[in-house]
UniProtKB/TrEMBL annotation:
The keyword Transcription does not apply. This is UPF0173 metal-dependent hydrolase ACFQO8_05410. Keywords: Hydrolase. The lineage of its organism: Bacteria, Bacillati, Bacillota, Bacilli, Bacillales. PANTHER family: UPF0173 METAL-DEPENDENT HYDROLASE MJ1163 (PTHR43546:SF3), UPF0173 METAL-DEPENDENT HYDROLASE MJ1163-RELATED (PTHR43546). It comes from Exiguobacterium aestuarii. SUPFAM superfamilies: Metallo-hydrolase/oxidoreductase. Belongs to the UPF0173 family. Residues 7-191 form the Metallo-beta-lactamase domain. Transmembrane segments: none annotated. One of its GO terms (molecular function) is hydrolase activity. InterPro entries: Metallo-B-lactamas (IPR001279), RibonucZ/Hydroxyglut_hydro (IPR036866), UPF0173 (IPR022877), UPF0173_UPF0282_UlaG_hydrolase (IPR050114).
Amino acid sequence: MKITYYGHATVGFEIDGVNVLIDPFLTSNPHTEVDPSTLRPDYLLLTHAHFDHIEDVELIAKETGATIVATHELATYYEKKGFSVHGMNIGGGHAFPFGRVTMTQAFHSSSFDMGDTPIYMGMPAGFIIETNELTLYHAGDTSLFSDMKMYGERFEIDVAFLPIGDNFTMGPADALDAAQWLQAKRVVPIHFDTFPPIKQDAQAFCDQLHRRGLLIEPNTTIEI
């Protein structure tokens, strides 16, 4: 499997000729110069509606016809705008051509910034993605929560993408606990350094996980 990290929480992977992109935030992302119009995902997985996770959804979906996978509220919003969608909800799973996706809870918020008043867009989420090669967990924006222990017991997670930025999500200390509870073979820190309040030493975080910590530089593709 090829995995590409674009900075912040934007992660792409390719398996069996299918391309998946999670939380496309590229145009305003200071960690990447990738033009979103050059990407060709077949599926766009969205954890929640905050701008720094959905900025380039419409541009990419118009260019590619990609199916948007998101919570019911967010999927319905895009469906009414004419996009191909697959709505899900917390605890549910669905078999896609690239693997089975289980939508997990995340403790955060989710809204569109529509001027003076944010518009609530349902619950935030994470994804556990079981493919024929690897099982991935993208936690989305979340605090630490004890059900991560259950995920570690029920799934053999090969790679976990965990936010470490603090302030808006869990910080490094809580992410270390999450890594232990999940029993993930590899842990990739995400959602850090993009804005001043979430500045973190990601290498120090990975060092504390020893061989399990995997720091992927933005715009880098690795093969696992």
